[in-house]
Amino acid sequence: MHRLLERQLRKRFAASPPTDERFSSFLVDIDTAYAANDTDHNLLERSIELASAELFERNERLARDLEAIQRLELELRQSDKLRAVGQLAAGIAHEINTPIQFVGDSVGFIGEAVRDLLELGQAGLALHDGLKARGIEAPELARVGAAAQTAGVGELSSDLAIALQQAAAGLGRISQIVQAMKQFGRPDQREKELADINRCILDTLTVTASEVRHVAVVVTELGELPLLACYPGDLGQVFLNLIVNAAHAVGKRFQPAGGLGEIRITTTATAEAVVVVIADNGSGMNREVQARIFEPFFTTKGVGRGTGQGLAISRSIVVDKHSGTLTFESTPSEGTRFLLTLPRASDDASSRVEASGA
Asked: Could you read off the pLDDT of 133-145 as tens digits, one per residue?
């Protein structure tokens, strides 16, 4: 008999309940109804549990889908940014490169012409001195002597050599910057290609020089690396984000006192991966910031200086696009160290990339 029915019988009948056939049949009907109710209740609870589990699973799927959509949106936004940067860099590089070639050719020609003219001047001055030593006087000789004294031929020769050397060095620096912009700003790169990670880092340092030079000394310890199958333009964006963040952290700590911090970049290769370490002795991060730095749109920088997308995008590029890892260690007031690992492609994969014309 159902426990609820037994309880009701004990409550209603102090002594034993009636035993006649009609009452017993009535009790059987009630007991059956209680049992059916329990069955229905259990079925309902089970249905609710299943529905709750399904709803929870759907919520989990929606959360994953939402995260994937946000990541895709972030990547698309980054792709648009890289496309714009690439187009701008390509345009600037093209506009600068052509006149730089003209100037470089002209400086080379001027250098050769100056050397010839200086040699001619030295010969003329030697002739002047020789004729004057023999007692020969003429207006032309006096003119040569006056011009030589005015020009200061000896100092002029040295100064011109230095000026031409500096002009050539400056043109070389401009060409290096143009090349770095072309390498850094390549948009819409759909296939991996074999690239020199050290070269990518040096190109990024060239692009970020104006951001870094006033706050930090950059120390590079670049080891011998194999060519890596990767997306060089995307990795350049990762290196740029990490280096600029390091510059901001160093500037925050040292700039108020007018000092310079240090950014140290190290690369090594293992049998499985290429490892890049970008460390600084800047302001560091507390635990609360460390827990959130890879969140999209989270930033500790002032308005107009940071969007909170740099590290989230960097992690997506390293982890999702290159199957690598991006980790960090940070101590407040001591600095931050980012460790980036990029798996080396197999020989077959490298061969395929190389064969594709990368």
From this structure: 777 777 777 777 7
Instruction: Collect all residues with Cβ–Cβ distance below 8 Å to 90 and sequence separation of at least 6.
Output: 182, 185
**Which of 14, 34, 64 lies at the terminal end of a domain, its last residue?**
64
DSSP code for 191: S
Are 26 and 8 in contact by the 8 Å Cβ rule? The answer is no
| Rounded CA separation 310/296 (Å) | 8
Give the confidence band of 355 by pLDDT, cuts at 50, 70, 90. very low
Looking at 64, 79, 104, which one is the last position of a domain? Answer: 64
Distance of CA 320 to the CA centre of its chain: 14
325-331 vs 261-269, strand pairing mode: unpaired
Does residue 347 sit within a domain?
Answer: yes
Residue 201's nearest CA partner among 220, 178, 216, 224 is 220
What are 248-267's pLDDT values in tens digits? 999 999 988 888 999 999 99
112, 117, 127, 150 from 156: Cα distances, Å: 15, 12, 19, 10
Give residue 229's domain range.
190-358
Which letter does DSSP use for residue 278 in this model? E
Tell me how far apart the terminal alpha carbons of the chain are, to the nearest angstrom.
83
Please report, for residues 189, 228, 250, 301, the alpha-carbon distance to residue 231 in angstroms, rounded to integers and kept in the order given. 7, 9, 29, 28
- CA 217/CA 250 separation, integer angstroms: 10
Local structure of 275: helix, strand or coil: strand
Q: Rounded to an integer, what distance in angstroms lies between the CA atom of residue 274 and that of residue 194?
A: 13
Query: Are 332 and 285 a contacting pair, CB within 8 Å?
Result: yes
